[in-house]
């Protein structure tokens, strides 16, 4: 294997740097690491004499024919000299995938949601990450504006793919203003460089009404359509404005980053979509989707579910989503949720949940769909599930998706309704990383405030499984 370039522990702007870089959290049973005797709590400090900056570095370097692995355990250094066969499954999960912290952005997007959230929410929410490693590992979106030449070379050399790129607009001047960074204007050059390197990427537009939709969106789509099949999909989501964001906009407060001073004098005014504007986006997308169907075999351009739900338009069918390439970003999650319900209704016998009751708390946007879905579920299973829509008082009613509800919002609506029946909340409300809700509440604390069991669930299959277990337990107690 040729020597690789490994950037030194980053001198760039980072946040959430782990106190113990390279800490092993989990060793999978039956893995190569377990065979070697590596344990949770060990620290991987280097491979072949090179320090590591993240888990990607580890996996790249540890693929060599011969590996010298340095591991620190309780202050002692263990050195493993390994002849590799090439098909080893390392099975190491690090406590933090990036040993040098999370790279933060050098932008000042006028619609930045992180700048719109109040104090007191979970710490990780305030991290303005723009880190290509998280983009590859977890699907978070990056702007590519903070990449040094060394970063580009590393992406190319280690084939860090796929990436998820916030494009917003291919018009250089407009993208500079939308991203708040004079380096943002070279996006098409950046995407072509990814393409030349064989890196797959998904693109995203955060649409701001009257700014980058309409003719500007046509221009962006025309430019993106010139790219080959390394571009895997394009998503367009409406801008989100919390009540703090609205105040910020109404006071015309701009974000104060040094780079803003060198921008062209283009002030972006951000507001939410009105009904007719959202319908216009759906109508504008359709001919593009037809063109992409013909050219690429799927609609390729996917609108955020909000466009359909807020206009009362039917969400597209499963075939439209072509494998749901951007479901991590919530694109097509409503159709996926309904598909899972249909699957349950096809599989499950009728009447199996007679006598079981529960409540689902959801955001106001999905409420009509959720009520309809619960009615179908109840009619088939015999359960009595009620749906309660919860307004987002914490961030403001314009933020109406279930995943951004806080514990205090749920308490405000359901505190006076304790009981034996469980309350199901969206599992998207709970951080996978630390189990916290947006306002730092934990699920057991929420349960205690509501005096009823609270269960995060993804869909009706999860709910059915939980109710079936409870019904069985109840039958055993009665026997
Ligand atoms: S890239 Fe833009 S939206 Fe993302 S964190 Fe930075 S300023 Fe906010």
Spell out the blueprint of helices and strands.
Blueprint: E1 14-15, E2 24-27, H1 32-36, E3 43-47, E4 50-51, H2 55-61, E5 66-73, E6 76-83, E7 92-94, E8 102-103, H3 132-138, H4 149-158, E9 163-166, H5 172-179, H6 187-196, E10 201-207, H7 214-224, E11 231-238, H8 243-250, H9 275-296, E12 301-303, H10 305-311, H11 333-347, E13 357-363, H12 367-381, E14 384-390, H13 407-414, E15 423-426, H14 443-450, E16 454-457, H15 460-478
Parallel strand pairs: 9-10, 10-11, 11-12, 13-14, 13-15, 15-16
Antiparallel strand pairs: 1-8, 2-7, 3-4, 3-5, 5-6
Helix pairs in contact: 9-10, 13-14
This protein binds iron/sulfur cluster.
Name the descriptors:
16% strand; disordered N terminus; 479 residues; alpha/beta; 15 helices; four-stranded parallel sheet; 3 domains; Pdz3 Domain; four-stranded antiparallel sheet; binds iron/sulfur cluster
Overall helicity? 25-40%
Largest sheet geometry: 4 strands, antiparallel
Please work out how many helical segments DSSP would assign.
15
pLDDT < 50 runs, ≥5 residues: 1-11, 252-261
Q: Shape, please?
A: globular
What is the CA-based Rg, rounded? 24 Å
Structural category:
alpha/beta
Report what the structure shows:
- The chain is α/β, with parallel strands linked by helices.
- It has three domains: 14-94, Roll (Pdz3 Domain); 102-329, no CATH class; 337-478, no CATH class.
- Helix content is 33%, strand content 16%.
- It is built from 15 helices and 16 strands.
- It has helices at 32-36, 55-61, 132-138, 149-158, 172-179, 187-196, 214-224, 243-250, 275-296, 305-311, 333-347, 367-381, 407-414, 443-450, 460-478, and strands at 14-15, 24-27, 43-47, 50-51, 66-73, 76-83, 92-94, 102-103, 163-166, 201-207, 231-238, 301-303, 357-363, 384-390, 423-426, 454-457.
- The strands form five sheets. A four-stranded antiparallel β-sheet has the order 4-3-5-6, with no helix packed on it. Strands 9-10-11-12 form a four-stranded parallel β-sheet.
- Helix 14 (443-450) links the parallel strand 15 (423-426) and strand 16.
- The longest helix has 22 residues, at 275-296.
- The protein binds iron/sulfur cluster (SF4).
- The site of iron/sulfur cluster (SF4) has 9 residues, from loops.
């Amino acid at each position: 294997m040729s020597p690789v370039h490994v950037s030194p522990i980053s001198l760039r702007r980072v946040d959430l740097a782990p106190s113990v870089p390279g800490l092993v959290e989990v060793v999978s049973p039956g893995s190569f690491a377990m065979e070697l005797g590596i344990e949770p709590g060990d620290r991987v400090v280097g491979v072949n004499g090179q320090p590591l900056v993240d888990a990607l570095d580890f996996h790249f370097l540890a693929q060599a024919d011969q590996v010298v692995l340095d591991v620190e355990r309780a202050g002692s250094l263990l050195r493993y000299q390994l002849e590799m066969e090439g098909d080893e499954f390392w099975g190491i999960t690090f406590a933090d995938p990036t040993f040098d912290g999370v790279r933060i952005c050098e932008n000042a997007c006028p619609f930045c949601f992180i700048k719109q959230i109040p104090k007191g929410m979970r710490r990780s929410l305030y991290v303005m990450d723009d880190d290509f490693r998280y983009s590859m590992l977890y699907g978070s979106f990056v702007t590519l504006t903070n990449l040094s030449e060394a970063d580009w070379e590393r992406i190319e050399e280690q084939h860090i793919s796929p990436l998820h790129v916030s494009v917003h607009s291919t018009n250089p001047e407009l993208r500079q203003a939308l991203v708040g960074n004079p380096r943002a204007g070279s996006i098409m050059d950046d995407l072509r460089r990814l393409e030349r390197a064989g890196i797959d990427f998904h693109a995203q537009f955060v649409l701001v009404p009257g700014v980058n939709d309409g003719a500007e969106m046509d221009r962006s789509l025309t430019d993106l359509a010139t790219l080959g099949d390394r571009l895997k999909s394009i998503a367009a989501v409406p801008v989100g404005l919390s009540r703090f964001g609205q105040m910020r906009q109404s006071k015309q407060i701009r974000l104060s980053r040094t780079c803003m001073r060198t921008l062209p004098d283009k002030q972006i005014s951000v507001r939410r979509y009105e009904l007719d504007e959202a319908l216009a986006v759906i109508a504008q997308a359709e001919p593009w989707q037809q063109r992409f169907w013909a050219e690429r075999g799927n609609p390729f351009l996917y609108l955020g579910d909000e466009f359909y739900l807020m206009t009362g338009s039917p969400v597209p069918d499963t075939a439209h989503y072509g494998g749901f390439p951007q479901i991590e970003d919530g694109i097509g999650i409503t159709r996926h949720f309904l598909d899972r319900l249909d699957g349950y209704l096809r599989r499950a016998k009728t009447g199996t949940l007679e006598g079981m009751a529960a409540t689902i708390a959801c955001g106001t946007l999905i409420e009509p769909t959720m009520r309809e879905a619960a009615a179908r579920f109840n009619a088939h299973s015999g359960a009595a599930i009620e749906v309660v829509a919860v307004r987002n008082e914490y961030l403001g009613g314009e933020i109406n998706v279930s995943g951004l509800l806080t514990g205090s919002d749920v308490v405000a609506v359901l505190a006076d309704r304790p009981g034996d029946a469980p309350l199901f909340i969206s599992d998207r409300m709970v951080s996978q990383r630390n189990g916290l809700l947006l306002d730092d509440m934990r699920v057991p604390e929420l349960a205690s405030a509501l005096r009823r069991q609270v269960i995060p669930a993804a869909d009706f299959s999860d709910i059915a499984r939980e109710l079936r277990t409870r019904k069985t337990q109840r039958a055993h107690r009665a026997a």
